[in-house]
Amino acid sequence: MESELYEAAVKGNVPSLLELLEKDKLLLDRVMIGNHTETPLHIADMLGHLDFVKEILAQKAEMASVQDSQGSTPLHLATAKGYLNIVESLVRAYPDICFFRDKYKRNPLHVAAMKGHVNVLENLVGARPDAAHSVIEHGQTILHLCVKHNRLEALKLLIDTLGNEQFINSRDDDGNTILHLAIADKQTETIVFLINKGVNPNITNSRGFTAVSLLAQGESAGGASEIRDYVPQISENQNSSGRTVHTNNTVTTFHPPIGEEEERKEEERKSKIKWQNSMHQTLLVVATLLATVAYQATLTPPGGLWQEDSPSNDRTNVAASITPIWWHFASRFPEQ
């Protein structure tokens, strides 16, 4: 009889479901405690059978909390598919499933953010906003996932709804804020939005890079002039530590703001010009290597529905490839 139940789920056949339950009122209970990789509710969710889902929930709402072999609840699956009506039905029946995590520690809100289903995400945030603050593997927040997967509209929703200084400046296990990730990926619109929302550009990651210094390195490699033009707040104006960023065609340097101390610092700045010019040719080599690394990254093909988010790809190591190159050459030209 269980096989008939699964067949009814595949077809979304509600009359067959009711007929089976009339014959065996404990059928759904047996399925829940049985050795199955997924329930009929998982199947109906994936296939978008709304009426079948509603009937299952009416008969046995707690089935919404059952996790499959990947740790996914029916809500994870409906969210991944973007089925808003099914998501609403599941949340009404069992709202706390918003907190349930799959094998990668992602709850349904994380999945909605990754997939860019903004209407689904809005519904889930409205039901259980605290679930948006859950941290997944490698210390990433839901905001990190939005930037990693380039989901700007989802990011806007979360920051506008839940944003506070601590949340938007959260760092992952590598010390990267969402601004580090956006600059590393050259997401111009995202960078502008984050700066306007007050994300701190001077937080240092575990490799000693601020978002400002990442932007500077991108400019020295010839890859961030567009971002610099769009984001004068961090490339030309003073930053929160009281420094102003100035750029030239050889290297990007940081100098104190124009004011009463400028005269005292003028000689020191001039003494660095020679060092900067000495590095020019070396930086051209670095820029070429950086461009090569960036190009190679574009050749990695995407995976399936979940492959792109597997643990092997989940860790974002900003500037990991450029740091050894940068410091190798920089060590040959110590600051004067």
TrEMBL record:
Compartments, record wording: Membrane
Domain PGG: 274-313
SMART domains linked: ANK
GO cellular component, one term: membrane
Domain of life the protein comes from: Eukaryota
Keywords: ANK repeat, Membrane, Repeat, Transmembrane, Transmembrane helix
Matching PANTHER family: PGG DOMAIN-CONTAINING PROTEIN, PROTEIN PHOSPHATASE 1 REGULATORY SUBUNIT
Transmembrane segments: none
Protein source organism: Eucalyptus globulus (Tasmanian blue gum)
Membrane disposition: Multi-pass membrane protein
Keyword Transit peptide: no
Keyword RNA-binding: no
UniProt protein name: PGG domain-containing protein
ANK repeat extents: 36-68, 70-97, 174-206
